[in-house]
Amino acid sequence: MTIYSKKSITFVAYLKVYMLIIKWLMQFGRYVLLMQRVFTVPQRWSVFFKQVIQEVYKLGVDSVGIVIFISVFIGAVVTMQVSINIKSPLIPDFTVGFITRAVILLEFSSSIMCLILSGKVGSNIASELGTMRVTEQIDALEIMGVNSANHLILPKIAGFVLFVPVLVFFSMFFGLLGGYFIGWFTSIISSETYEYGLRYWFVTRYIGHSVLKSMVFAFIIASTSSFFGYNVRGGALQVGKASTKSVVNSSVLILATDVLITLLLV
What we know:
globular; mainly alpha
């Protein structure tokens, strides 16, 4: 390969990266402009509160079942894995409960659970708004003089952000309960030892950290999914693509924000 061909390949690579950055910046700009329209004073507060309650039920209450189911099994698996991998005469048995509590409270109930919810809640929001866009329902609201972004998106963001701490508490409780069941039904660790590990050197601010992170992640899920669904152009195929993009982008943003928030809180 000649030196000129190497330079041309390098130039093309840099050009692709440059175009990707420009595309991302333009998309971020459209997102900011949409959020400016979203966060305005609702035209009718009674309608807004009614919509928030509906979104709380649709996005939050309907997710309680899957949160409980996943949390119980994840708590059980974490307890088994920790117990198996730290077996040592130098490490007390109650460390299993201590580590399980730290994992559930600090990461699983906020970060991992929100990653799971991004698939359920995020795709729900994106597909709903995308369908409204392609069937011209959003255009009809705009013609009537309604701020469609504020009317449709703000209740979803508010409802999910307000209810996600409840999901976090459910996840914490049932995740730790799953580990307790493992100690109760098996000989991996006794229930009394596990319970002592849960209470040992308990730091209450960890719960606050988890709730704070979950609320930030809930905003990311709701706003990102709304952005992709609201800006759908085309037909049913584009609605499906927007739903996929919303889940992928929400997951990436959650992971990146998790690192940043953890650094700030620590």
